Amino acid sequence: MTELVNEIAAFDGRIAKVAGPVRSGKTEALIRRAAACVAEGCAPEDILIETSTAEAARLARRRLAAALEAAGVADAKAASEAVVIATAQQICLAVLETPEAREATGRAPRVLTPFEYNFFLEDMKTLGTPIRRLRSVLNHFKVQWCALAPEDEWVTPGEERETLDHARRLLTTTGAMLADEAAYLCGTYLQSDAGACARQQFAHVLADDFQNLSLAQQTCLCLLARDQVIVAGNSEETVACATDFPAPEGFDTFDTLRRGVTTFTLETAFGNPNITDFCDSVAAAGNENALTAMTREGVIRDIATVKWNTPDDEFNGVTRYLFAVNAENPEAPQSGICLVAPTKQWAHAFSQMLVKRGFAVSSLGFERLTGDPRDMSRARALVAYTSLNLLADPEDLFAWRAWLGFGNYLTYSDGWNFLLNWCDEHKKGIFDALEAASAARDAGDAEPFPRGERLAERYDAGRELIAAHSARRGHALLAAVGAEGLRDFAALSARIVGDEDAATLYALMRETQFNPVHEDDPRTVRVSSYEQMCGCSYRAVYAVGCVDGYVPARDAFEVVSTDADRARVLEDSRRAFVAGVSKASDTLMFSTFSKAPLELAERTKMQVSRVRMEAGERIATLRPTCFLEQAGAAAPITLGGQALLADMGID
Ligand SMILES: Nc1ncnc2c1ncn2[C@@H]1O[C@H](COP(=O)(O)OP(=O)(O)OP(=O)(O)O)[C@@H](O)[C@H]1O
């Protein structure tokens, strides 16, 4: 085994694929290859390591520093910092950011956050297409972009063409970009004559978890390599953490579609053999061809499923248990413990309970700002974010687009459309239109375009906001934009020293939306989504809320959808589950509960197997995650929650 890793580390051919089951050292092999390149004299900045998430990049950099040291590289820390380690999306955006690419694409790589996307969607509705149809056409575009399919080959004249043109107009006029466009634009640019100078930027491109990338992202990475590309992955570990449209087939066929690919298959899984056996068995239950380990190396320990009565019992019980475990071994870093949660609600409930028990918590995967921009009382975090955006960059046209729309049931998409038409007619820019509307409002004149007065009112309020608060900093600034006390801003508020200006605070907030990472503090227990487990490794993983409907998602059971849809959801959930829980090297515990109030179960999409009355309340009966029993002989042992607590001396 070690021999094979050494072989990969020394591989000097042009193109290789590293396959292997969970925990077989795929990442390790890439890290060792990067270290060997530096040791052989390659400039660290000439090496690109691609990871699926920003957190995986952070951890890879740490592992690389250790590997460089082991390889005898003089200033290992500095070298590890100089190697480019980033997500595919970050890499594509960096390419698109260059003046040459901006010129060639005519686009600015300012990606919309998910909540900003809602404004875009409202503006798309002005076309009059029924919303379901519009969503389906936009989804079609995203699929094609992610497949890097040339637009002229797939856009049909009529509705599709019109929709695409309108989308482009909305985005280009505001200097904005959709997340799924980035790899498409980057790939198209890199393949064009104009992009020749941007191709082959790196001597070595080492792409980890290649199965998680879209075809467009996969292609971009290959185009960036000069001397060598090595991709590592396993399609049974596919998670939608780098794109909404991962293309595991791009990994599976990597060696058959190209000539001269050297394939390495790792066969030893590291860590508690019961854990890797469980993961391999669940993967094999979904796909008989799944890669499984030939040998397993590590200390054997039982893995268990703990059953509680209700969600409250689970929140209480698991956290009390963790408290007792921690008390037994207070020296062990708490960052080695991770609770993987199926939903934001579960993550919050556990985070709160852990804090109550005296733990510090770092949560990852649930930071996406949500709310309803049309309803001010439900848009406070969104307004605060956009206010910071405007203060940081008063020229950001998409921030203005959002700002103007808050609190209106159509987010003033009608007014925005009139404004854009006015710009076209007068050959003027958006600020000219807003200034004209504002001047007319001041003078009591007729609006230059319908809804102009409403937009001018919002525009003036935005100008006032900028004038009033642009000199503020730190907490005073957060208070001024209404962010102080909001849960979505709590982590930022706790982190800042207090003298940060708007640009700094906005950049931090934006980074949390696009490239979130865990706190670099060994004393914080981790709470994570399944997606954010990618690239991580923990001593102990507690998979909480393990009921059908959460894991796998309820759509896997939905009777109204087709068999194929159900199967697709089931298999997507299986891969995310396998990839997530496999990150435990030592201890793995599943936590489940047998009943919940029907209202909670329905609202949060648990799969209800029966409903019965208990003390006048309707109670849903629930089942543990179906994946547990699918593991067959490798399934965990089952314990009652009370028995678990009693074992630890907790009554
Ligand atoms: N040759 C080795 N000897 C001992 N331990 C190893 C070796 N290679 C990897 N490991 C350990 O095994 C674990 C898994 O390694 P790594 O993350 O590189 O595997 P992976 O195949 O990329 O995992 P994943 O399936 O999570 O993507 C890590 O804890 C790592 O330190």
Explain what this protein looks like in three dimensions:
- By secondary structure, the chain is of the alpha/beta class.
- Among the domains are: 2-92 and 188-266, P-loop containing nucleotide triphosphate hydrolases (Rossmann fold); 279-367 and 519-647, Rossmann fold (3-Layer(aba) Sandwich).
- It has 28 helices and 18 strands.
- β4 (202-207), α12 (215-223) and β5 form a beta-alpha-beta unit.
- The mean pLDDT is 97.
- Residues 1-2, 5, 20, 22-28, 237, 270-271, 537, 582-583, 585 line the site of adenosine-5'-triphosphate.
- Residues 1-273 form the UvrD-like helicase ATP-binding domain.
- It comes from Adlercreutzia shanghongiae.
Question: What small-molecule ligands were found?
Answer: adenosine-5'-triphosphate
- Sheet of most strands: 7 strands, parallel
Q: Number of helix segments?
A: 28
- CATH topology title of the domain at 279-367 and 519-647: Rossmann fold
Question: How do the strands line up in the largest sheet?
Answer: 11-12-10-13-14-9-18
Our measurement of the CA-to-CA distance between the termini, rounded to an integer number of angstroms, reads: 47 Å
- Which segments are poorly predicted (pLDDT under 50) over 5 or more consecutive residues? none
* Rg on CA atoms, Å: 26 Å
Strand residue percentage: 5-15%
CATH class of the domain at 279-367 and 519-647, named Alpha Beta
Number of strand elements:
18
CATH superfamily annotation of the domain at 279-367 and 519-647: P-loop containing nucleotide triphosphate hydrolases
Average pLDDT over all residues: 97
Choose one word for the global shape.
Answer: globular
Counting helices, strands and paired strands, the structural category is alpha/beta
- Helix fraction by DSSP (H/I, runs of at least 4): 40-55%
The CATH architecture of the domain at 279-367 and 519-647 is 3-Layer(aba) Sandwich
